[in-house]
Structure formats: structure tokens, C-alpha cells
Recover the amino acids of this structure.
């Protein structure tokens, strides 16, 4: 363990670990996977990211049985409600995927250590982001009935409120 001297009125010595780079990289990968927009693509809101994932599952795996249209209409009538639904289900999916994301982060850290160029690093980070998003889509698939029910109930409440 190294020490750093900070010169102020009194000299203070703080322990500094020289190994935390690996932990910082792991946190950076997790932040990219779960970042402020829950791994949304650049410029994409949490709502947009959830809508894309939900619609992809609906049209690819659920024979178009879902509530994408209701979610779109809800976002026009009550954006805060649509954002809340997107935040809620994305956060639940992220928590469910935490173990897999942690595994992916560790795998990617090892691969980044061996990366020979910026292009290799970008490829590794992109792969991790895609796999994290796939895990969330799997969560939406596994909890389809609850997710769809939540959207439809909130949509119906908003529709009733706008008719009054």
C-alpha cells in the first residue's frame, strides 16, 4: 500500500490502493449496462428503450399479443405515467439480471486487458451492452402477463380521466 502526503497546515497521510483500477473498470462496465438510462442507446430515453424492448418481445415472441399501442397512447396522454412504467419494469429487469451482468462485466474486463486496439475495446463493450439488453428482454418475456397488465390498467385509468 502506498501513501500520499497532502500538504496543508498539517501533513496528513492517507493509504492509497494501487489495485482498484480493476474495480473501477468493473463499475464502469456496470454503469454502462445500467447507466442513467438503463443501457439505453445514446440519446434514447428510458421510455424509448423500454418501448423498443417491449415491442421487440411483443412482435417477435408473443404473436403480437401485448400493449405497445396502449403504451404509446398512454405516453401521449400522460408521459409521467408512461415514464414510471418504463422506469419500474426496467429497474426490475436490471435487478433480475444483476448476476448475469456481473458475470459479463468480469468476462469483459478480462477481454479488455487483452484488447489490442480501441476497435477491440469498442467491440467488447458493445457486446456486453447487447447481452445486458437481451437479459432485460428475457425478463420482460418471463413476466409478460404482469408487464402487459400494468400497462393496460394504467392506460385505462388515463383514458377514463381524459373522458371526464
Amino acid at each position: 500500500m502506498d501513501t500520499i502526503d497532502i500538504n496543508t497546515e498539517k501533513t496528513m497521510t492517507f493509504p492509497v490502493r494501487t489495485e482498484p483500477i480493476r474495480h473501477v473498470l468493473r463499475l464502469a462496465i456496470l454503469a454502462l449496462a445500467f447507466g442513467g438510462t438503463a443501457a439505453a442507446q445514446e440519446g434514447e430515453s428510458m421510455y424509448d428503450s423500454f418501448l423498443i424492448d417491449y415491442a421487440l418481445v411483443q412482435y417477435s415472441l408473443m404473436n403480437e399479443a401485448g400493449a405497445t399501442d396502449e403504451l404509446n397512447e398512454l405516453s401521449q396522454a400522460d408521459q409521467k405515467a408512461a415514464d414510471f412504467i418504463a422506469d419500474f419494469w426496467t429497474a426490475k429487469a436490471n435487478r433480475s439480471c444483476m448476476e448475469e451482468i456481473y458475470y459479463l462485466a468480469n468476462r469483459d474486463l478480462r477481454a479488455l486487458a487483452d484488447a489490442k486496439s480501441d476497435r477491440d475495446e469498442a467491440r467488447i463493450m458493445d457486446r456486453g451492452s447487447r447481452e445486458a439488453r437481451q437479459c432485460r428482454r428475457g425478463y420482460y418475456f418471463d413476466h409478460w402477463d404482469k408487464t402487459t397488465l400494468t400497462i393496460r390498467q394504467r392506460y385505462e385509468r388515463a383514458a377514463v380521466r381524459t373522458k371526464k
